Amino acid sequence: MWRRSGSVCGLAGLLLGCTPNTTGVGNPMAASVGDGDGGTGDPAAPTTTSGDPDDGSADATGDPDPTELTTDGSDDGPLLVITEGPSFDFGTLDTGTALTHAFTVTNLGQATATGLSAAPLPAPYALTGPFPGTGGTCSSTLGPAEACTVEVELAPTELGLHLATLAITQDAGPEASCALRGGGLGRSDDLLTNPGGEMLGSPPPGWANVGAGTWIAGDPFAGDPPIPQGMAYLGAADGPDGQDYVLRQDVSVDPWAVTIDEGVLRASFEGSACNYRLDNDRYRMRVLYLDQADAVLATWDTDWATTATWVQHEDERLAPAGTRTVRVELLCRKDTSEVCDAFYDELQLRVLYP
Predict the structure, then answer these.
(1) Where do the domains of the chain lie, and which CATH numbers do they carry?
(2) CA dist., res. 46 & res. 104, Å (int)
(3) Residues 145-172: pLDDT tens digits?
(4) H-helix or E-strand containing 327?
(5) Is the separation of the CB atoms in 215 and 342 below 8 Å?
């Protein structure tokens, strides 16, 4: 009882003279159309500058003539390109939904490509069926100047950014590739264990006592501030005066490492705190963003405060690139009496995308 005395570009990108999409801006509506011909209406028409004589000269852009590039230095090999270019953005989808796009594959070479196939894609990307996908038109061969389609679906079940590469391979030539990008819109559940002290014990289950004094999860005493949520809260107990009591919980965010390092994952923290009475002891909450080596990348801090009523604090920010752990710390500093009067409840730590 408590007591109180008081991008991938590759060969296709070189041919097309394009640059990867690094803005993260997509067009999901356009992505569902799937003719991929740059608006010409002719799926066999690649988005390249052609028509130069076969004289070894460069085209108007300064790039080599694609009809003169082959796998063996001659001008009679197959050459596959994906018309969408070096990258394609599916945009942001609600988790649990799906979007399909038909990618156009064109043979710019002078010989028939054989053995066409697509390398396996990591979830949540997939062909819509066996190669070339349910709505695709590619077969195992593709003649010079011919085009066909391969159908890819993005169906995110988890929030965050998802990256992959669509690679079309052949028997006797280089693969054609396109970097895929798409996001699952969402907000995670509370990532904290025992965020309101409903799992009773000392130290509170899910938390570690790393400072002076002790902590407990349990029911309040008569005269304590009313509980804002549930039947218990987290609180400091007995210990020395003038020292910091620290209750800590580390949360791994490794599942969202790609999204974090792209600089597009947000972290949200909320928590309520109070003291037994005004100008008694003091409370403090901190959230630290740590890298793989536990170096601190960013910190949110309420600083020391004292109040006799529950006060809600909140912070939302982009998780710094390199973050792998989010550390939540609850603190109390006892000035007098038997126990350190700082109480916490309604704690939430969530991640959000976008």
Answers:
(1) 10-185 (2.60.40.10), 208-353 (2.60.120.260)
(2) 9
(3) 999 999 999 999 999 999 999 999 999 8
(4) strand 325-333
(5) no
